[in-house]
Design brief:
Shape: elongated
CATH class of one domain: Mainly Alpha
Structural class: alpha+beta
CATH superfamily of one domain: Winged helix-like DNA-binding domain superfamily/Winged helix DNA-binding domain
Helix content: 55-70%
Largest sheet: 3 strands, antiparallel
CATH architecture of one domain: Orthogonal Bundle
Strand content: 5-15%
Radius of gyration: 30 Å
CATH topology of one domain: Arc Repressor Mutant, subunit A
Length: 150
């Protein structure tokens, strides 16, 4: 079983790994899933880390049941100090920019694939319609011959 210090350290590492030093939006259920804790423990640890100066809950809102949800959280600094170096922030921003760039490239590739598939679908639908009309005309000719032939 983990001690509270070990759990706090693990929570800090998880939050830094997922969100970096920038502000992020979170709900209790998202944090509970991310940290693999029940919501009561997550609330306790988030507000404990806020009291320790590791992070700051910027916006809070009341939810049903009287719970306060941390809508926007900012991680203030590394475990040893509350000061974040300029290089750490730039590295974090670069990491996030690369992630967004990769996501944009995947989205563009999916859009191109979607366009290609729509065009193929349109062509297949046109061929289907043409074949359907031809089959209908042949069927009509066959029926006409059957009824008109003695």
């Amino acid at each position: 079983m983990q001690s509270n210090k070990e759990r706090d350290k693990l929570i800090k590492e998880t939050l830094l790994g997922k969100f970096g030093y920038l502000e992020f939006k979170a709900r209790w259920d998202e944090l509970a899933e991310l940290l693999d804790l029940d919501m009561q423990k997550v609330r306790y640890h988030i507000f404990k880390l806020e009291a320790q100066g590791f992070l700051k809950v910027i916006e809070k809102s009341m939810r049903s049941g009287g719970f306060t949800s941390p809508n926007v959280i900012q991680i203030l600094g590394a475990e040893e100090s509350n000061k974040v170096s300029f290089e750490e922030v730039i590295a974090d921003i670069n990491k996030r920019a690369l992630a967004w760039e990769k996501k944009a490239q995947r989205t563009e590739a999916l859009e191109a694939d979607n366009t290609r598939l729509r065009n193929e679908n349109r062509i297949i639908q046109e061929k289907y319609d043409t074949l359907y009309k031809e089959v209908f005309q042949l069927r009509q000719k066959l029926l006409d011959r059957m009824w008109n032939h003695p």
